[in-house]
Design goal:
The protein has 486 residues and is α/β, with parallel strands linked by helices. It has helices spanning 11-22, 38-44, 56-59, 79-87, 94-101, 117-130, 203-216, 233-239, 290-305, 310-319, 346-359, 382-388, 414-423, 434-444, 462-477; strands at 2-6, 26-31, 49-51, 67-70, 90-93, 107-112, 136-143, 148-151, 160-165, 169-171, 174-177, 186-189, 225-229, 245-250, 257-265, 268-275, 278-285, 328-333, 336-341, 365-369, 394-397, 427-430, 450-454. The chain is 33% helix and 25% strand.
């Protein structure tokens, strides 16, 4: 089957393209303003990326696609969508395609929640692989050790398909959350907070979406199970309505699968797990922070449901090397470490900063932040962001990306954030852009500093530019001696 994908370089769409290709289909797609890691992943797998959206990609002189998968980036004004609607060619949303081609014949393990979906999904998938199982998975990020965001197993009905359940809208013709298509048999609910202000008018609307997700889990008699974070009040409340077996996990009271931190440092952290109050085992992961400990606890809960013992779970968690753009060390130059993270919601910013401080204790932390998402362009979290940066030693904030995409009068103010941070005693400044940030860090960072860059986009290639500038400065200070900047 020849399948064309509109918006192929989205994280989910790119993964689906790889899965469809491995399943034997001929896949191509279109997109614009593409950047790694998804674009690189597709190129490595020989999947063509057509530049820009053009009607000719659908109804041109070339081969006519048998099916078109429409990413949620495409609206009805998209030239390819217009041509598609006139062509009579069958089309599906990304979630519909995933359900049709892959989930119907497997055991769906669906990870949903405001935070931690990508890391938790990847962690569970890696754990299953290390245990000798043959899972399929689709993750909204690239696993560092595998260099991929997807895997297609052999397709046994007893084998899991682990998938990230996104609450964002499905497509222009289906405004419901993506996860409503994923048929969870085993599910995880990590957290419930307000986000995606352009889609959800209120916290109540967010809760309703997750309530619908919980309702999809089959009854316990049919094998349905939900692992839910007991430390998150809203998640726990919504999870209580599940018809399946409910497994609360967390670090506080009420957790059936409970964890306690032992130690944390540059190599990650180790922790003890109890189940129903009894010792289950000691585990380690190559990440830090309470949020990642909770992610690991959900993986422990799922592993037990899927028949893994403590030794298998421990081996799998220890093997997990993380996801690109989640606490990813991009390099070090002149003794300064540059870290990339996807954090953008105030809670994610706060927890990521805390995690990095635990990972690099006693070292000065620069927090570089780009307000880029549809929610962060708006003032909905204007006050909340100030407290999110408390753990940083210095904060540099880039201009809001495409502020015109937020309603006038409701736009996020960088200047107000800086004022609020300074009022809290945090050293902070607004920057004119990437070049200004690079110059500031290169001029004032000192050996031992850590620079944490937080953005959900490419951020103008800032990570490479920072490392290059720091390398050049260190080489100049050392008189140009080879290797002196390392």
């Amino acid at each position: 089957m020849l399948i064309h994908m509109i918006g192929i370089c989205g994280t989910g769409m790119g993964s689906l393209a790889g899965l469809l290709s491995e399943a034997g289909h001929t896949v191509r797609g279109s997109d614009e303003n593409v950047y790694p890691p998804v674009s690189t992943l597709l190129q490595e797998r020989g999947i063509p990326i057509l530049q820009g959206y053009k009607a000719a990609h659908i109804a041109g002189d070339g081969p006519r696609p048998d099916l078109v998968v429409v990413g949620n980036i495409a609206n009805q004004a998209n030239p390819e969508v217009q041509a598609l609607l006139q062509s009579g060619i069958e089309y599906l949303s990304m979630p519909q395609a995933i359900a049709r081609f892959f989930l119907a014949s497997r055991h769906p393990v669906v990870v949903a929640g405001t935070h931690g979906k990508t890391t938790t999904t990847a962690m569970i998938a890696r754990m299953l692989m290390e245990s000798g199982r043959d899972p399929s998975f689709l993750v909204g990020g690239v696993l560092r050790d595998l260099g991929s965001s997807y895997r297609l197993g052999k397709g046994s009905p007893n084998e899991p398909f682990v998938i990230e359940g996104d609450e964002y809208e499905t497509s222009f013709f289906d405004k419901g959350p993506k996860f409503l298509h994923y048929m969870p048999r085993t599910a995880v609910l990590t957290s419930v907070e307000y986000d995606h202000a352009e889609m959800f008018p209120s916290l109540e609307a967010v809760q309703e979406a997750f309530r619908s997700f919980v309702a999809l889990v089959p009854p316990a008699a049919g094998g349905g199970c939900l692992a839910v974070c007991a430390d998150d009040p809203l998640a726990a409340e919504l999870g209580a309505a599940c018809r399946g077996r409910i497994i609360p996990y967390g670090m506080g009271p009420g957790a059936e699968v409970a964890g306690r931190l032992i130690q944390a440092g540059p190599d990650g952290m180790s922790f003890l797990v109890t189940v129903d109050g009894g010792d289950f085992g000691r585990f380690s992961i190559r990440a830090t922070g309470d949020h990642n400990l909770r992610n690991a606890l959900s993986a422990v809960a799922v592993g037990r449901v899927l028949g893994l013992g403590p030794e298998e779970i421990a081996r799998g968690l220890a093997a997990f090397d993380g996801v690109r753009r989640r606490q990813e060390v991009r390099g070090a130059a002149g003794g300064v470490t540059v870290i990339d993270d996807f954090a953008h919601h105030p809670t994610a910013v706060r927890e990521t900063i805390r995690a990095i401080k635990a990972r690099f204790p006693g070292q000065r932390l620069w927090a570089v932040f780009e307000p880029r998402t549809n929610t962060t362009r708006r003032d909905v979290f204007q006050r909340d962001y100030a407290a999110s940066f408390d753990g940083a030693d210095e904060v540099l904030v880039a201009p809001v990306d495409h502020p015109e995409r937020a309603p006038e009068g409701r736009r996020f103010s960088v200047e107000r954030l800086i004022a609020d941070l300074r009022a809290r005693g945090v050293k902070a400044s607004a920057q004119e852009g990437v070049e200004a940030i690079v110059a500031s860090v290169a001029d004032r960072a000192r050996r031992g500093d850590v620079v944490l860059v937080m953005s959900n986009g490419g951020f103008g290639g800032i990570h490479g530019k920072l490392l290059s500038a720091l390398e050049s400065r260190a080489a100049a200070e050392a008189g140009g001696r080879p290797g002196a900047a390392r």
